[in-house]
Specification:
The chain contains 15 helices and no strands. It has helices at 3-29, 37-44, 47-62, 71-97, 103-113, 120-136, 141-159, 181-192, 194-203, 205-224, 238-251, 259-289, 293-316, 322-325, 332-344.
Length: 345
């Protein structure tokens, strides 16, 4: 695996855990009276779209012309099955915290409407289908890229405006690929021509930081004008997603290969799925033990990572564990690092 891909996956993964650490802490003790606190949280919502972008970069790089024969079976086993498993687990956790919750209704909602943190997998499977169509019919990105951006902006404008469903099902509006279409074509172009693009990104890596700064400034201006919604369907988050992705891909080529990055990369998919229920149990304890918002959030973040990685390791050792937390790559160096974390915990 290309090391900057690993780094981008880890950066996105850690960002989503940090974002949800702020969410779960606020659920216990309320939002703190910290200036621009919501702005910091908004800056982190780039993470899930970035994870989706990276998935498509890798896919189009590995399979630029056609999908292999075993593609769908592999994805069903190691991506769809974990999605289904955690759709059920999330329902069980929800029932634990709310005995009045209808378990069957919650599980059905999770699986069919993506009403839990695993919703992005529904988007990824739609992108798999789009990739098949693009390669099958040799669709040109020359016209598809600008069209996809226009369609995505139109759709996001629509669902961020007055168009709504029943309040319990507004989250369904983010599931159609239309909300992420521009990310797909951008990622397809980057992945298919990655060797050339990576060289240019590395050569102009300082420019990518300026792009990130400009993207943050755009979000800041939007926030100051009253756009305080904290979700990844914001139109003004698009530049941040693409700028952070390109910056990490550029600078990741210059950074040495660290064992901790390899470790977290191997567990990243499982961390995405496992961290949320773990945080629901941990948040009351970290919130009670620490007094400051920053220490509460950081404590929840770090303890969540340690416990989540341990849980994933234990589950992956079971006969069918890979169908629950996804495939975890076997690596002796990673295993040694894992034992070191367990001993220090």
């Amino acid at each position: 695996m290309i090391k900057e891909w690993n780094l981008l996956r880890v950066v996105a993964c850690l960002s989503i855990v940090l974002l949800h650490s702020t969410t779960q802490t606020a659920a216990v003790v309320g939002l703190p009276e910290i200036e621009n606190y919501d702005l910091y949280r908004i800056l982190l919502v780039y993470a899930t779209p970035t994870f989706i972008v990276l998935s498509m970069v890798i896919l189009s790089n590995r399979y630029p012309d056609r999908l292999p024969d075993n593609f769908w079976m592999s994805r069903f086993q190691f991506i769809l099955f974990p999605y289904l498993a955690f759709g059920i687990i999330d329902g069980l956790v929800g029932k634990y915290f709310n005995p009045n919750l209808s378990l069957s209704h919650r599980i059905i909602d999770n699986i069919f409407t993506g009403s839990f943190v695993g919703w992005f997998i529904i988007v990824i499977f739609q992108f798999y289908a789009l990739h098949y169509l693009v390669t099958r019919f040799k669709l040109s990105m020359t016209w598809m890229f600008p069209v996809s951006l226009a369609v995505m902006i139109w759709y996001l404008t629509l669902i961020n405006g007055e168009y709504t469903l029943h309040p319990d099902y507004d989250h369904v509006l983010k599931l159609p690929f239309l909300a992420w279409f521009g990310y797909f074509t951008a990622a397809f172009i980057i992945g298919k021509h990655y060797k050339v693009i990576a060289e240019k990104l590395y050569k102009h890596r300082w420019v990518t930081l300026l792009y990130v700064g400009l993207s943050v400034y755009i979000l800041y201006l939007s926030y100051m004008q009253g756009n305080t919604a904290i979700h990844s369907r914001r139109i003004d988050i698009i530049p941040l997603v693409l700028s952070i992705s390109t910056a990490v891909l550029a600078w990741g080529q210059a950074i040495p290969k660290f064992k901790i990055i390899t470790l977290l990369n191997n567990y990243a998919f499982g961390i995405y799925l496992v961290h949320w229920p773990v945080q629901r149990f941990l948040a009351p304890y970290t919130a009670a033990y620490f007094q400051q918002t920053s220490t509460r959030v950081l404590a929840l973040f770090f303890v969540t990572l340690i416990i989540t990685v341990m849980i994933i390791k234990l589950i992956s050792m079971l006969p069918l564990g890979q169908f629950i937390v996804g495939k975890v790559k076997k690596n002796s160096a990673v295993d040694r690092r894992m034992r070191s974390i367990e001993q220090s915990a």
